[in-house]
Design brief:
alpha/beta, Rossmann fold, pyruvate-formate lyase- activating enzyme, 2 domains, seven-stranded mixed beta sheet, 15% strand, binds iron/sulfur cluster
Length: 499
């Protein structure tokens, strides 16, 4: 058995089983001839959701995680023990967790604490695009936690790792930050240009497992074309800017992925595919030559019919948008650079050209009221025939966002000072929603208002989206898949977007 265990952290996204970052790390470790085992917890979690009946979002709720991390939570501890045992996570000396979003960070802390309590001599390293974001010093607070040994700051391909990954050796490596006698040692960020980024790869057993967990035995590699985002939405802590890989590199990488994994599908993990429409247009023609189906996240832009139909002809299957709200006032408050008319036009052009439109919404933005919420409902009603699916998220307040920096401008009061000392390092580093309240309300009342807004959008529109979606599939095929893989039929969203 190798000494290093790389863990694909759970909840990468609701749609995907593995992350781009894990794939890049896999390629890098292979190039360095470092032996390791890559374990995909998403597979286990996915089975758990539909198997023994766990609601994982509840199991790893913020409250459960915080009580386990600061004191005890027997229920969560038993669950962690099952995860470790069933996935063979025991017996390694070093663990690398690649963290791609705040969504899974508390879960990672819980796993780290559990593993460390079982064996205090192991080394726990956290890294990945989420933790190594430029300018986000708060993440290093996690090094105050006794179960986190290192946070890697930057792009792993920029360093030479020693064969022996002992703590003493890692302290000598660039980018590996740690705490020493109550002081946090933060090293400079290691960066490689986007052009130098390795193509993400995965071991065969990992790919086979992912195929088995897919409705149609698909393996959909994740790839990114660009870094960062040129927009500056007030609730988002994405880095400002945008750099792209050359089209030649993208072509070669995707050709490689297609052949390596015998797949005709790829998912682009970019923040905003339309941040450079000309680049995407040219790229789509190259993807057309490769006969590959693709999709990803995008903002809204003014596009003509020819643009959209060219994307479709060249394999575009779906585009997921950050719609967020159907209210002009809220879009302005969010600093979304788009008008409602552009959103409607974009969504209808996609659908009319056979590209599925998947839309993300935010319920309970601080300046939201029932008038603006009703505008969003009206927007959805007016456009629903062009919407394939929606995902509704409750507003969360993150550090390094405009709303956090200027709370009074958005009518909120930040309540961080009321956080117990024992939870401070966890909350600051995990960047889970920072406690805040609307002016004149308590935190609890604020959360109730947000939940009500969420419910009124969710129960009004999600069931219709689900029914529309089921109707768009061939019933006979759906039934056959239901018989073959009942627990997957209604939840394999990424695969569904490609058919
Ligand atoms: S467009 Fe999306 S990724 Fe870019 S700043 Fe806005 S929310 Fe963030």
């Amino acid at each position: 058995m190798s000494d290093l265990c790389v863990v694909q952290t759970p909840f990468v996204s609701k749609n995907s089983l593995f992350s781009h970052g894990t794939g890049v790390l896999n390629t890098y470790l292979n190039e360095q001839n470092i032996s390791f085992r890559l374990i995909n917890l998403n597979i286990f979690f996915k089975k758990s959701i539909y198997g023994p009946g766990y609601n994982l979002e509840k199991v790893f709720s913020k409250e459960n995680c915080l009580s386990y991390l600061t004191d005890k939570n027997i229920f969560l501890e038993q669950f962690l023990s099952k995860i470790v045992e069933k996935n063979g996570l025991n017996g390694y000396s070093t663990y690398f967790f690649s963290v791609s979003s705040s969504y899974n960070l508390l879960t990672v802390y819980c796993l780290a604490k559990y593993l460390k309590e079982k064996n205090k001599d192991i080394t726990i390293v956290l890294g990945g695009p989420y933790l190594s974001k430029k300018g986000n010093e708060n993440h290093f607070k996690a090094l105050e936690l006794p179960y986190i040994d290192f946070i890697f700051n930057g792009d792993i391909e920029g360093v030479d790792l020693p064969k022996d990954l002992s703590s003493d050796n890692l302290k000598e490596v660039e980018g590996f930050c740690y705490s020493y006698e109550d002081e946090i040692i933060i090293k400079n960020r290691v960066e490689v240009s986007i052009e130098e980024e390795s193509v993400p790869t995965y071991p065969k057993y990992f790919v086979d497992e992912a195929r088995k967990s897919s409705l149609k035995n698909d393996f959909i590699p994740i790839y990114r074309l660009s870094k960062d985002c040129p927009n500056n939405c007030v609730f988002c802590n994405f880095e400002l800017g945008c750099s792209y890989k050359s089209l030649e590199k993208v072509y070669e990488d995707i050709k490689f992925l297609k052949e390596e994994y015998s797949t005709d599908k790829i998912y682009f993990a970019d923040a905003n595919l339309m941040s450079n429409p000309d680049y995407l247009f040219e790229l789509s023609q190259k993807l057309g030559e490769l006969n590959i189906y693709w999709g990803g996240m995008t903002g809204f832009i003014d596009v003509d019919e020819n643009y959209v139909s060219t994307l479709k002809q060249n394999g575009c299957k779906f585009l997921a948008t950050g719609l967020e709200s159907g209210s002009t006032k809220i879009l302005r408050d969010m600093r979304k650079p788009v008008k409602k008319e552009t959103m409607s036009d974009f969504i209808s052009k996609l659908t009319e050209n056979g590209i599925k439109s998947y839309n993300h919404l935010i319920a309970g933005f601080p300046t939201e009221d029932y008038t603006s919420l009703n505008e969003t409902k009206k927007f959805l009603r007016d456009n629903f025939k062009h919407i394939f699916d929606i995902s509704i998220n409750i507003f969360s307040l993150f550090k390094d966002t405009e709303v956090y920096r200027n709370p009074e401008k958005f009518g909120i009061v930040i309540e961080e000072e009321n956080v117990e000392k024992s939870k401070e390092a966890i909350l600051k580093s995990a960047n889970v929603s920072i406690p805040y309240r609307l002016k004149g309300k308590t935190v609890k009342e604020t959360n109730i208002i947000k939940k009500k807004m969420y419910n009124s959008l969710f129960y009004r529109f999600k069931p219709i989206a689900m029914i529309n979606k089921s109707n768009s599939f061939n019933l006979k095929e759906s039934f056959e898949y239901f018989l073959k893989k009942p627990r997957l039929r209604f939840k394999n969203e990424l695969t569904e977007l490609y058919y």
